Amino acid sequence: MENKRLYRSSTNYMICGVCGGIGEYFNIDPTLVRLAWVIFSFMGGSGILAYIIASIIIPK
């Protein structure tokens, strides 16, 4: 079994690479992750805080 680790993407990024890293980890298009994150952000604004926390926690 492959040992997968979650990292911020250094090649597929817009701000910090969080969505690109999540997309690479789950083997899905990072654009879908970004779209889901934007929708999540508009539903109460907690997506922005979650993105900031994820960019601090997830290693580069």
UniProtKB/TrEMBL annotation:
Signal sequence span per UniProt? none
- One Pfam match, given by its short name, reads PspC
Which InterPro entries is this protein grouped with? Phageshock_PspC_N, PspC
- The regions listed as transmembrane in this protein's record are 34-58
- UniProt membrane topology term: Single-pass membrane protein
| Entry's localization field | Cell membrane
State the name under which the record lists this protein.
Answer: PspC domain-containing protein
The beginning of the lineage is: Bacteria, Bacillati, Bacillota, Clostridia, Lachnospirales
